[in-house]
Amino acid sequence: MPGNTFSSPNFAFLGQQNAHLLRLASQAEAFCFKEPDLELSGLASRENTTAFHLVRKSANAAVRSGEATQSQALQSLKLTRAIAIWFHRLKHPTFQPGPFTAPLTPVDAREALTALTKSGIR
C-alpha cells in the first residue's frame, strides 16, 4: 500500500464512496492473518498487549459460538475502553477520563421504554 494508494480485491468498491473506508478495509485485509507483536514494537505495554489479546479472543469466541454473556460483553467493553484511553494518551498524556459508565442492560432499556409509554410519551 505504498504512496497512500489502497487497493483491495474485496473492498475496491468502497473507494467510489469513501476513501477512508477503503483504506481501513484494505488495511484490515492486509493484516487479516498477522498478529502484530505490539509489545516488541514498543507500541504497547505488556498490560495493554494482554488487553488487546483478551478482547480479540473474547470476540472470536463469541463469533464462533454465536453467543456471549452480558458479563463477558461488559468485560470486553471495559478492556476496549482501557485500550482507547491508552491510545488517546499517546497524544494527550495528561488526559484523565471520567469513570466508566456501564450501558443500560436490555432489561433496563425495556423498563425505561415502558415508563415512557405509560407517561404518554411516544
Domain count, please report it.
2
Order of helices and strands: HHHH
Distance between the termini: 50 Å
> Please, what is the average pLDDT?
77
**How does the major sheet shape up?**
none
Q: Name the shape in a single word.
A: extended
Report the strand count: 0
Count the DSSP helices: 4
Low-pLDDT windows of residues: none
How much of the residues is beta strand, in percent? under 5%
Short structural summary:
This protein has 122 residues and is mostly helical. It is built from 4 helices and no strands. The N and C termini lie far apart (50 Å).
Architecture overview:
The protein starts with 18 loop residues before the first helix and ends with a helix. Helices cover 55% and strands 0% of the residues. The protein folds into two domains: 34 residues, no CATH class; 79 residues. It has 122 residues and is mainly α. The mean pLDDT is 77. The longest helix has 22 residues.
List the SSEs and their pairings.
Elements (H helix, E strand, L loop, with lengths): L18 H12 L15 H20 L4 H22 L14 H13 L4
